[in-house]
């Protein structure tokens, strides 16, 4: 039998769809899954792609079915399963074979896995994939970390299966070792912030203006034709317009308000903190999901503090809805600026030389945060390397307009007791960032007062202590 071009381990939601995508692009793919029945069920249901798929019951069979040197994609649950699978695979592979971990790995694990390989072990590539089930099947965004040599060998199949934005594949080598998984992690952090801000605007429209789910859906649908145009706004409109078949109510109204998280958002916030980069929109979004999980406590708290969330009656309703649109855009710009600042810092810290414009480009299609807005980000990085996107001319113009609307949105929500944690974090970040004279002089004085940490002066070079002993320190 003709051998496969590539192997794939893990036929869950992502792996099965990725295998079909690979086969559809004309490659032969050998597949293996821990639970053997799934492998055969998958093969049976592969329709006209069946002939390009080789189902394997064992790892030995899988390895024997792929033409050497073998690229093998791991698309399984992240964490320990990946270590177990690598351990089982390694003795079966040769030096030139490539193991590609395509799951949502923590980039520290990717670096550790790479460092633990001996000189005659197979090559290891850490690859972030975004786009969910649909993306995996018809074109995801692919963020690769590894050597150029390994990438050159696997890039034909990766670029073939990747999403295309105006014909350009959304796939790139972003740097060595953990670079691909790091960028995927930050992608997910930005995704958390984007989704949270959308949910906050939904909350204002629902609880502040009293709009029904379908009416809010229509607002989002209209916004999707403007500067907010993106996959997340598009699906938000669709979700809000959907009806629950059992009750006839809006589907979103029968869903428990408690959001799940698998870890990538939290990792983003942790990495931002470790690098000393403010990513308050992402942090607020992660915290909001944690707060959402405290449903029972929130129910008790609502009884203890019943006055929260009063209805809004803006003088000009249409204008307020326009402010919500512009405010959301401004919040989104701040969150993306933070995410890109985290990547810029990581790039320096780990000497990855991350191509920020390319990252924006490969996120324009296929992934969950895809939007035309990323085109503007890519152009901003092409034109120079702004310290922060907020300093790029294209964004200065947008933020000047959008921040006024964001201020209206955040202040109106605050006065009405409507929670907007990510939007308010974005606004405070913007206001702090554009304030040349901040308030940390007082923090430094306090630190010196209780801990003799010293401070710098505005008017002289050197390290100083304050006159605290004169006033009873
Ligand atoms: P699923 O839960 O659908 O599938 C999990 C897969 O992992 C199955 O093939 C399962 O095999 C296998 N697996 C689980 N534990 C082990 C183990 N101990 N040893 C070997 N195989 C194991 O997950 P997804 O397809 O959704 O996700 C796969 C990876 O892709 C994860 O890292 C996920 O974070 C990432 N990802 C997911 C996205 C999504 O939208 N779902 C998007 C982007 C990335 P078995 O059938 O035997 O249980």
TrEMBL record:
Coiled coil: none annotated. Transmembrane segments: none annotated. InterPro entries: 6-PGluconate_DH-like_C_sf, 6PGD_dom2, 6PGDH_C, 6PGDH_Gnd/GntZ, 6PGDH_NADP-bd, 6PGdom_BS, NAD(P)-bd_dom_sf, Pgluconate_DH. Pfam families: 6PGD (PF00393), NAD_binding_2 (PF03446). Pathway: Carbohydrate degradation; pentose phosphate pathway; D-ribulose 5-phosphate from D-glucose 6-phosphate (oxidative stage): step 3/3. It is an enzyme of class 1 (oxidoreductase). It comes from the Bacteria. The keyword NAD does not apply. Keywords: Gluconate utilization, NADP, Oxidoreductase, Pentose shunt. It catalyses: 6-phospho-D-gluconate + NADP(+) = D-ribulose 5-phosphate + CO2 + NADPH. The keyword Acyltransferase does not apply. NCBIfam families: gnd, PRK09287.1. Belongs to the 6-phosphogluconate dehydrogenase family. This is 6-phosphogluconate dehydrogenase, decarboxylating. The gene is gndA.
